[in-house]
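User: Structure please.
Assistant: Input sequence and predicted structure:
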Amino acid sequence: MELGEIEVFIRTKDNDAGLNTLLWSLVGQTFRPRFITLLNTGGVIKQSEIYYAFTFFDEVRIFNRKNESYFDDDGEFNASLQLVDCISLFSRKFVWFFDSDLFVPSNCLEELVKKVPSIPKFVVNYTSLSYEDTNFGFYALLAGIEDWSKASKELLKR
């Protein structure tokens, strides 16, 4: 698998410090992703460190959409509407999903790539190593575009 096929997707809302931490942990990956798509559902991103971190990636796309755009007929926030809407944002073969702003270990993408079968119809989760005290679970979900429905169901379970 070529790393150029992997796109990172981050949903964030009003957590510049957390987003900055996540971006810098992506910069430090043993296999560094090259493409970032950011769905910002909160206020304007203000930290200059975030914009500096963006310079380490080949392409960064930021979509600003308020969470209010994703309320269902009952007036409740519906994450599935947001996820379905986001499929049109992706332009690479594989998407590495993040549903929160957090730090990931430097080997995370490398370990996910090792799990990729020869036919890209899959969803794989990162399993924390014994010395890592945090379970990253769905925060490190890698999925093929062809299997979007399975990925979205997995994300909505969390």
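The chain is about 30% helix and 20% strand.
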